[in-house]
Amino acid sequence: MKRYRNGDIWDFENEMSVNGDGVEVILGLDGGTTSTVCICMPIMPFSHNLPDPLPVLARAVAGCSNHNSVGETAARQTLEEVMAEALSKSGSNRFAVKAVCLAVSGVNHPTDQERILNWLRDIFPTHVKLFVQNDAVAALASGTLGKLHGCVLIAGTGTISYGFTEDGREARAAGAGPILGDLGSGYGIAAQALTAVVKAHDGRGPLTMLTSSILSILELSSPDELIGWTYADPSWARIAALVPVVVSCAEAGDPVANKILLVSVQELAESVKAVVQRLGLSGEDGKNYFPLVMVGGVLEANKRWDIGKEVINCISKDYPGVRPIRPKVEPAMGAALLAWNFLMKEADEKFDS
Amino acid sequence: MKRYRNGDIWDFENEMSVNGDGVEVILGLDGGTTSTVCICMPIMPFSHNLPDPLPVLARAVAGCSNHNSVGETAARQTLEEVMAEALSKSGSNRFAVKAVCLAVSGVNHPTDQERILNWLRDIFPTHVKLFVQNDAVAALASGTLGKLHGCVLIAGTGTISYGFTEDGREARAAGAGPILGDLGSGYGIAAQALTAVVKAHDGRGPLTMLTSSILSILELSSPDELIGWTYADPSWARIAALVPVVVSCAEAGDPVANKILLVSVQELAESVKAVVQRLGLSGEDGKNYFPLVMVGGVLEANKRWDIGKEVINCISKDYPGVRPIRPKVEPAMGAALLAWNFLMKEADEKFDS
C-alpha cells in the first residue's frame, strides 16, 4: 500500500482518526473519455430490496482517464486523485474501503484489466476487493441496479454493446472506435454528415440542407474550409458535437440527413443483436425477456426523429422480448452497485458452504 | 530576399561565383505527406517538342512538408532546405532561378496558397515567378508533360481527383482525408478491412480470410488487440500499408476483401466522374477524348485484382473517351514542367502583343 507517494494525494488520511465512525464503504468509478466520476457509497445491508434513493457519502469528478487518450501516467494520476477526493469528502480513508469497482473506457483486453488491477493493489490494503471493467459494464449495472444480466447499448461520442448472461458469460460488439467502423456513434453520425457536405460540394453526392446548417454553426464560409476545420483538432467529442445539427436537418425533412440516421439506427441495432445472438439472451425461441440498458446522448429522446426509439423498434422485430431501460442513476453508481453485488454474492457463498 | 536567416541554409551561395555559367533554372517541388522532392531543371528552349530524357541538373529529397501533418514551421523549413540543396547540388543559386513551382499536399483553399506565396516571396528575388499548387496538379503535369488539361486520379495513402480544362477552369473531388469519406484511398481500403475483421469477430459480419492474414502480418494473436494497435499510432501511412494484404485476400477469392476493393473502385471512379462532369471534359456528347493521369500505389498493376484497370473500366462506361496515362516522370518533374509551361505561355503572350 502506498504512503506519501504521488505528492500529497493521501495526506488527508494522517489528519483524521482512522476509520473514525466505523462506516465501511465502496468506491464506484466511471472513467470515460470526457470525464471521470467517483462515488463513495456506504455498505448497505445485503438484500435484494434496495433503498430509494440509494445512499451516497460523497461524489468527486475529474477529467479524462482513458489511457488510450491521455496516456497511462496521466490516467492513473486522475483515477488516484478522484478516489482520494471522494474518500476525503466522505470523511473516510482507504482502511474503510471494502471494495472498489473501476469501470474505465479503453479496457478491451485481459491484459488491460491485469495492468490496472496490479496498480490498484499497490494503492489499497490487501483486504480490499478490486474489480476492473470496461465502462460499458458500469452503464449496464446502472440500469439493472448492479445485476450483470442483459445488454447495454451506449451511444455517445463512441458506441459499444455489452452483454452478460446470468451464468456469467459475456460478449461485446462494436466499441472499436471511429477508425474501426463505429458508424452508429455520435462521431460516426457527424463524420458521415461532414462527408455528405464534401460530396455535395464536389459533385459526388446530392445537395443537402446539412451544408448550410453545418457551415453556419461552425462559422465557415465554404465546404473547402471543412477540411482544415476537421484536421485542425480531430478530437472525437468535437466532431460528435455536430449530431444535433444532423437530427434537426432530418427532422426538417432532409433526405441525406435522414439516411445517415437510418444507417446509424441499423448499426446500433446490429451491435445489440450480435450480442443477444451470441449469448442466447432471448432464449431458444428468441422470445425471452431481457433488459436492454440504453445510455448516451445519441439515444436520448429527440423531438421527432428519436434514434433510441427506432433502434428498439429495429431490435424488437427480431427479439420481441427486449425490455428497454433508461437508467435513473449514473454509471459510477452502477459501478458501486456492481461491487456491492459481488460482495453480497461472496457472502451468500460463504453462508452456503 | 532572405540572407543568412535560418542558420546556414543559403550560406553556400557566398562560396560560389554568382550565376557562374549563366544557366537559368527552374525548381519543381512535390511535397507530400511522406516525402518532398525538389528537381532543378535548366530552362529548355520554348517548344512543344520536349527532349527525351528531360534534362535535370540536380534532385534533392527531404521528409514530410504537409503543414496539416507536421505544422507550418517544420513544413517551411523542409521546403527551404530541399530547395537550397537542389540549387547547391546543381552549382546554381537563387539569382539563377527563373521560376519555382511548389506543389504541396494540404493546399485546399486560396488562403493556403496565398500564405505559401508570401513566404516564397521572402526567399527569392523579385523577378522569380512563383506558383503554388496542390500536389495533385504536379501529378497531372507529370503525365501530360506540363500541360494543364484533363484529369488526374491519385490513390496512394490518400486519394484525390483533380481536373483542368484547356481554358483554365479547374475542379477537384475527394481528397478530404479519411475522416471525410475517402473510402477509395489506401487508408480507406485498409480501415474497411480492419473493420471487417472486428465485425467478423464480434458477430456483426461474415467470417473472412482477412482476419488470419492481418493478424499474422501484424503479429497479433486476437482481433481484440487490433483496437490497441490501431490507436497506438493512427498514422495514415501505417494503416494504408495493409492494402497488399487486402488485395491478396481478394485474389484468393475472399468475398469480404473482394467487396472492399469493389467499393474502392466505385469511390475512385465516382471522384473522377464528378470532375469530368463538372468540367465537361468529355464534350457535349460525352465521347470526347480526355487524358486521365493515374498515380499512386493503389492504382499500380496487381497480379489478378487490378484496381486501376477496374477504375478505368468503370469510368469508360460513362465516358468512353477516357485515355489513361501512367506517367513516366515523377511529380516533381511535373511541377518543373508546369513552371516552364507558364513561362512559355507568358513569352507567347508578350510576343503576340
At the first level of CATH, the class of the largest domain in chain A is Alpha Beta
Alpha-beta content class of chain A:
alpha/beta
Kindly report the greatest chain-chain contact and the residue count on each side: A-B, 38 and 38 residues
Unreliable stretches of chain A (pLDDT < 50, length at least 5) are none
Notes on the protein architecture:
Chains A, B: GO terms for molecular function: N-acetylglucosamine kinase activity. Chains A, B: InterPro entries: ATPase_BadF (IPR002731), ATPase_NBD (IPR043129), Euk-type_GlcNAc_Kinase (IPR052519). Chains A, B: Its EC number is 2.7.1.59. Chains A, B: Residues 27-339 form the ATPase BadF/BadG/BcrA/BcrD type domain. Two copies of one chain form a homodimer. In chain A, the strands form two sheets. Chain A has a five-stranded mixed β-sheet, with helices on both faces. Chain A has a five-stranded mixed β-sheet with strand order 8-7-6-9-10, with helices on both faces. Chain A is built from twelve helices and ten strands. Chain A is globular, with a radius of gyration of 22 Å. With 353 residues, chain A is an alpha/beta fold. In chain A, α9 crosses α10 (255-279) and α10 (255-279) packs across α11. Chain A has helices at 67-70, 72-89, 110-123, 135-144, 186-202, 210-218, 224-232, 236-240, 243-251, 255-279, 307-318, 331-352, and strands at 25-31, 36-42, 58-62, 97-104, 129-134, 150-155, 159-164, 170-174, 290-295, 322-325. At the A-B interface, β8, α5, α7 and α10 of A face β8, α5, α7 and α10 of B.
